[in-house]
Amino acid sequence: MKNSRTVLLLIAALCFLMLGVAMYLQHAMNMAPCPLCVIQRYLFLAIGIACLAGAAANRPKIGAAFGLAAALGGLGVGAKHLYVLANPGFSCGIDPVETALNKIFTAQVMPFMFESYGACENAGEPFLGLSIPQWAFAWFALFAIAMLWTLLRRQK
Prior knowledge:
globular
């Protein structure tokens, strides 16, 4: 049980770190978040909250199950973002998704984190060979694997 809690706490910390990196890129590096970026922020937040709740309640499997669902959602959104980058003629730009996202309560209260005003095809310069959407996809995959391990491991 203790190992599962440690894994969940580590995942939660990494998710909140991802959100901090997103804030840095947005506000210090002037990279405007696109609708898909904002959706991924919500999913990193959901994973972090699910993992924290599961660890705090000493119910790691429940936290891992909800976190896994959010991570799988992140993989789906990340795959769409990578598709947009691979097909320059396809954009998610200003569309109904952006309008709907910007009307959500959290975007109204915390626009510095959840307001979308960028274009999906502007992923910035690669870092260590990967674009920001590729990094996000990789982290969602690692989190999904770790939470799946938490769900499938036997209790002692």
